[in-house]
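hey so i finally got around to running both of the ones u sent me last week. sorry it took forever, my laptop kept dying halfway thru and i had to restart like 3 times lol. anyway pasting them below in the order u listed, first the sequence line then the structure token line for each. didnt double check formatting much so if smth looks off just lmk and ill redo it

first one:
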Amino acid sequence: RKESKNVRYYHGDITHLNDLKAIGRNFDGIVHLAGLSRASDGFKEPNKCLHVNVIGTANILDFARSTEIRPWVLLGSTIESAKNIYGLSKYIGELCAERYALDFDLKVLALRFASVYGSGRDNSDKVIPKLITRALSDQEIVIDNAKVAIDFVHISDLVAGICRGAGFLEAISEESFYDVAPLCTGHNTTLVKLVELITGETGSKSI
């Protein structure tokens, strides 16, 4: 990655507070999107998921609290319930954010993301990339739980929502603020319907 006049890159680990402090303190806000972002990650490595998503988020908040300017913090969260380790880790992160906002005069907005799709860098084993790959090669598609319904949001809409959230925090005059907002379509799509859409658009012979 090349640095530019307006962009500077730092490599670090949010679970290491000293890595965050090395960035300095001359900025207006933090968009916190780092972490383990899938329920399957929490199932495979529950301790790591909790460590990264809870301790990492607490470090981001503590870093913001330690600065003189007190930057606003936009926190990437999830609409996933706390019924699994991943959802629990994000929920605890929200609780930490609320306490830091109210106790240490921070402005924090937690955006609860739906299931994101549309990026060329997406994980190939996520449901939409996996189904598209199988459909394009006419492979058999098996759905374990046809009644599962998911709210999918395109990455371009997600980026637009994040930008609006940052602008919202910039405009707030209060020293202390905390709120949550969903960043989703509000419409769930069943896996059966998703398969129908993908096979129809690709002209696939998959069944």
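and the second one:
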Amino acid sequence: MDFLKILKSFEEFVYEALTWVVLLPRTLVRTLLHPDRMTAYAAHELSRTDDTRFSDAISPPLLLILCVLLAHLFDLGVRAQVPDTSGSLAAVILASEETLLLYRTITFGVWALAGATYALVRVRQPVNRESLRQPFYEQCYLVAPFALVLSCAMSLLLMPQPWTNTASACLTLVMLAWFWLVQAAWIRRRTRLPWWRCLGAVAIVLLVGGSINATVGYLLAHTAAGALASG
């Protein structure tokens, strides 16, 4: 009986994973071309109570995870740096592909959380587990393409070819402009603020998320791997 349950679970996993081949590129393209529709789609699907939510697209958090995974695979293909052996927590994270993937997912998830929190605070709604869910899911749709392209752009810097620096800079600028505009439009729909204030709000979200990630990165790089265990 247990063996049959394992086979059934494996069957479901294989089918689900294979559907990503179709749904992942479609969801990415739809998000890049129509981000407003995809955030509205996320809100609509979350309001449903049946088991067919997000049946024709990748769910927002999963899309973010898969985009980080794709960028990670691209990074593995071009990575040439020598692993850090300094003994810091950062070295431990970089030494394991699983923890590095988790760290990168959380890093970009911070921006989704920052955007969701800002929107709730701005309209004076309570910030809790339930109220954060919808704006966070909507934000994941916007952050996922940003995470994929920006991560790949950073990986291009590791390649020795001279054209990769230019390609990395162009990709970064284009994706940052896209992210800034779609974030401002999303904040405007939720808060009804004028455009110039929404653009400023995106700067705040990016600054907060960047500051959190920079602080965590600094602490990881300057904390010995054995410090937590000895403490």
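quick thing i noticed on the 2nd:
Residues 89 and 180 are 32 Å apart (CA to CA).
anyway thats it, ttyl
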